[in-house]
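Most newcomers find our protein records easier to grasp once they have seen one. The structure tokens are whole numbers drawn from a learned vocabulary of backbone shapes. The record below serves as our worked example for the rest of this section.
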Amino acid sequence: MRKGLKIKVILVKKKIFIGIGAVLAIALLAGAAFMAVRLLNTNANGGGPGSLLAGLGGPGGGNSHVAQMLRLTPAPELPVTHPDLTGVVNSIQGNSVFVVQASNVSTTAGEIQTPNGPATEVVVSQKTLIYRDTTLDSVPTPQAGTTTSIGAQQVVEPAELSSISTDSMVQVWGPLRGDRLIAETILVQGTEIIH
């Protein structure tokens, strides 16, 4: 009888270890999936609230490229959360701005091409706050063939819907209702950043 009891205890202990192992494996996979989604969202959203794309071509589109890394302190006017949508304006129809998400914008030889892929309709109302990023207006242009890294305070100024044009890079905050994003705040970064 003792031998049978010993076998049952060993089997119960094995089941407990297998159960604990399974729970730990599931927790590990869930944590990995969570981190993967966070990393993907950070990349798609351009790195965070008000982040500025850097990497400028040479004067007149020549071969003398410069790179400028900006470590921005976000403007206080912008929401502190990541934007709900970051991308390039594909078209504008009335109070609707159609934006192709940044992950769907293709690049060739370091230049952003015409956006393709599905566009999200961004609805602009009278309550929508629209800002234009003017940070680059006060940042010195680096010398050709150099790479610089500077810290800067992001500067934004109030703007109107009419200041948004096709090919403008935008960040949008607001709730998604169906297949439309109801804009609460829009940051226009301008076309000079992406060409």
Summary: The mean pLDDT is 74. The first strand starts at residue 67 and ends at 73.
